[in-house]
Each structure stands twice: as C-alpha cells, then as structure tokens.
C-alpha cells in the first residue's frame, strides 16, 4: 500500500476519534447512578452526569417496570429531568449537587484534562492542515508533530477517563452514599473510543512520517532515499 494511502486512512480514523472525543466532552452520560427503590408506584430520583452537568431524573416506578434488587431506573424510562451545571471554578454548592459528598477535585481534574485533550487535538489538526497544503519535505515534516499531538490527546483522554472512574468509585464506596447501582454510559464509551483511536493512530502517523527504512543491511537510515508522500 502506498504511503499516501496509509496517511489518508490514518486521517480518516483520526476524524472518527476526534468526533468521539468531542461528543464525550459535551455530553453528560458518562455515568448513571441509581438509588434504592423504597416504595412501588412512587417516583424515585436517578442521576446521570458528565464533565460539566449533573442531571437528576424523577422516574415513576410501577410493579410492571420494577426489578427486585435493582435500583431506580433504567434511566431511559420517561420522567421529569432537571440538569445543573457544575460550578467548577467557584466555591459553593458543588457538594450539594452531588448529594453532599461529591469528590469535587476529581471532577475538576477530569474536566481540565479533557480541555488539554481538545487543545492537543486542535494543534494536531492545524499540523495536518499544514501537511495537506504543503509541498515536498515540509509536508512530511508536519506529520511528526501532528502524530505527537494526537498521541498526547489520547493520553489526556485516558487520564480523564481514569479520574472520572475514580470519582464514581469513591462516591459509591462512601458510607453516606445513597446510590446502590452505577454504570458507565455511552459518553464514557465515546471517550474510550476516542482514546484508543487518537493514541494508536497518532503513533501510526508518527511512524509513517519517519525516514524510510534501509533496504539493505549495510545502509543506514541517512543513506536511504527519502520516501515522499505524493
């Protein structure tokens, strides 16, 4: 396969990874939390949240949709929903939003790291644009920083995922928690997909931008003829 074809495939995969990461950052279905159902034929309050918002949903639990041993939900059932933005950088009511025991520092860290991931994505995209519009050696040269930026974006995505996972774990393990069930939802899956695609494709792009390997054992990389991505 021609080198330029490999680069085009890598760019397509990167676009999918970027779309997944942007979707994860702006949506609020990273985790879903469910409390215990005390009584049937009454409403209970489940919650789902992302990096920026917490949404509480009042769900009516009847004998038809109640499963013994399970919490309030599923979250897909109809009900009134109220969403509140986290006040990341101002003191005040963050702990109350998370039932008084939220690990605010974790959530701030996950949101901040995701911003770094988006910044690396933007820098990598600028390098890719320069590579596509450039000519000769300049085109290949810009692929190196592009690959590095996308790999760094993938690493930041992974760190953000782990911080969020630890935040949920600490809430569930707290003695004062009201949540008996939790699971990671589709926004979390988008972030996982974004991490894998951005990191692996960034490394692949970096490898593609490297000098051509020598064809003969007695050659060095400096002696080998450069392979241009036409």
Automatic annotation (TrEMBL):
UniProt-recorded Gene Ontology molecular function terms: calcium channel regulator activity; voltage-gated calcium channel activity
This protein's UniProt keywords: Calcium, Calcium channel, Calcium transport, Cell membrane, Disulfide bond, Glycoprotein, Ion channel, Ion transport, Membrane, Transmembrane, Transmembrane helix, Transport, Voltage-gated channel
GO cellular component labels: L-type voltage-gated calcium channel complex
Keyword Calcium: yes
InterPro entries named among the record's database cross-references: PMP22/EMP/MP20/Claudin, VDCC_g1su, VDCC_gsu
Signal peptide: none
This protein's record includes keyword Ribonucleoprotein: no
GO biological process: regulation of calcium ion transmembrane transport via high voltage-gated calcium channel
Membrane topology: Multi-pass membrane protein
Transmembrane segments: 7-26, 108-129, 141-163, 183-208
Gene3D superfamilies cross-referenced by the UniProt entry: 1.20.140.150
Principal location class: membrane
Compartments, record wording: Cell membrane, Sarcolemma; Membrane
Subunit description: Component of a calcium channel complex consisting of a pore-forming alpha subunit (CACNA1S) and the ancillary subunits CACNB1 or CACNB2, CACNG1 and CACNA2D1. The channel complex contains alpha, beta, gamma and delta subunits in a 1:1:1:1 ratio, i.e. it contains either CACNB1 or CACNB2.
Function of the molecule: Regulatory subunit of the voltage-gated calcium channel that gives rise to L-type calcium currents in skeletal muscle. Regulates channel inactivation kinetics.
Similarity section: Belongs to the PMP-22/EMP/MP20 family. CACNG subfamily.
Protein's name in the database: Voltage-dependent calcium channel gamma-1 subunit
Organism field: Seriola lalandi dorsalis
Organism ancestry: Eukaryota, Metazoa, Chordata, Craniata, Vertebrata
């Amino acid at each position: 396969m021609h080198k330029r074809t490999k680069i085009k495939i890598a760019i397509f995969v990167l676009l999918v990874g970027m779309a997944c990461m942007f979707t994860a950052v702006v949506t609020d279905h990273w985790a879903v939390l469910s409390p215990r159902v005390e009584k049937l034929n009454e409403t209970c309050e489940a919650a789902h949240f992302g990096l920026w918002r917490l949404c509480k949903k009042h769900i009516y639990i009847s004998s038809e949709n109640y499963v013994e041993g399970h919490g309030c939900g599923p979250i897909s059932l109809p009900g009134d929903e109220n969403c509140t933005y986290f006040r990341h950088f101002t003191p005040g009511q963050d702990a109350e939003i998370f039932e008084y025991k939220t690990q605010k520092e974790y959530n701030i860290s996950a949101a901040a790291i995701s911003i770094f991931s988006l910044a690396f994505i933007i820098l990598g995209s600028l390098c890719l644009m320069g590579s596509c519009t450039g000519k000769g050696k300049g085109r290949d040269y810009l692929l190196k920083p592009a690959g590095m930026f996308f790999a760094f974006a993938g690493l930041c995505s992974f760190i953000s995922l782990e911080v969020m996972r630890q935040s949920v774990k600490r809430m569930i393990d707290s003695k004062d928690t009201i949540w008996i069930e939790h699971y990671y939802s589709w926004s979390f899956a988008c972030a996982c997909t974004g991490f894998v695609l951005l990191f692996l494709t960034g490394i692949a792009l970096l490898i593609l931008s490297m000098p051509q390997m020598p064809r003969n054992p007695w050659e060095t990389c400096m002696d080998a003829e450069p392979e241009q991505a036409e």
